[in-house]
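Structure ticket #2291
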Amino acid sequence: MRDAKPFDGIRVAEFGQFIAVPFCGQILADGGAEVIKIEAPSGDPTRRFNPLAPGESRIFLSRNRGKHSLPLRLSHPEARPVTDQLLNWADVVLINFRPGLEKELGLEPHQLLAAYPRLVVASVTAFGKQGPDAGLAGMDIVLQARSGLMAANGRILDGRPASGDPVSADYMCAMCLSFGVASALLRRERTGRGGVVDVSLMQAAMTLANNQLVRSEEQDRPVHDAALKKLAAQRTANAPYEEQAMAMPNSRFPSMTAIYFRTFETADRAIAVACGSHSLRIKFAEVLSIEDRGLSETTLQGPHWQDYYAALKQKVEAIVRQDSAEIWIARLNSAGVPVAAVHFPIELFDDPHAHANCMFHDMVHPTAGTVRVLGPPVELDQDGFHPSEPTAIFGSETDRILQQLGFDESTIEELVENGIVRRELLPHGEGQ
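Resolution: structure written out below.
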């Protein structure tokens, strides 16, 4: 008998696509939950991205393993009995729709809770439920821009701000949603009542920039007001983005961005160094045999320090380029300085450290053979979270799921004939 998982016995109805809700559903499935994913009869749009097998993509598999898919035409009035049975069956409902659609479909969270008091309804929006932007659509790159995260990351491409891949706001949102669901289920265990969990991409993105979103109204407000005034003038004058970025206050000392908390090019590849404490900065300087006057100072404000560290930066960069990444990593690790080579994602598939910590899982896909995927982002002893197996071939579980929900064979046939549900498999090439 296997060990109990934290979400054993929990039933989840997932009405979501793309990333935040599907990845939350996958985490719950890895934790033992039974997840029924509602898809359009044509399939989740991500099935068509970067195809792996007919009707399934690598991207879809990365967020949807362990689920049971039900192709359902939600907008059709005859779909309502199926939806009602799903809501009766479920403990948790996961929702992310375009603004206004959940109300059109009768899946507005507070209405659901009123009808099903023990239900946990977890909903994702782009900008939150209130405020002037509440009705707007948004995806990760848009929310990275709106939330300040894109600027906070500091990535500039061809003179313009740029987001990166991965879609960080979406994945942070999924983790927040998972925590919210677990919290609501724990509270239900105590009170007997469900609840509504609201998470927005904007709040998730702002959480990732948390350390830059703290302001002392007495100390920081005057500095921020002056910077915003300068920024407005720059924008009026059509100043380049890089110039605008330079107008923003930087909470880090110039020594950090120039020397101690950044990436370097070695003789063969890039490394990242993080000297977050004074003692680590001393150790780094000792390893490189450099003298830094700033290490004996308590404040490093003023343009002279900017000039000083600009010159020291060039010296340090020249030193680091003399040896390979392997040599520098060995030296800095010996001194206790956090350091790592910059890896491309495909270098991690066979990384011995990643495998020693079970970060990857090899699953047997029904049509694509062995597929290596990431394991759950959290460990719980006694195998509490374990990578689920791939979803069944799209459309192949329709009859079983509907029977589980209480529909007889004649009703199922009628639903299929009327195009409300789909049981046939995707023809080869469809969904790719």
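Closing remark: The chain is about 40% helix and 15% strand.
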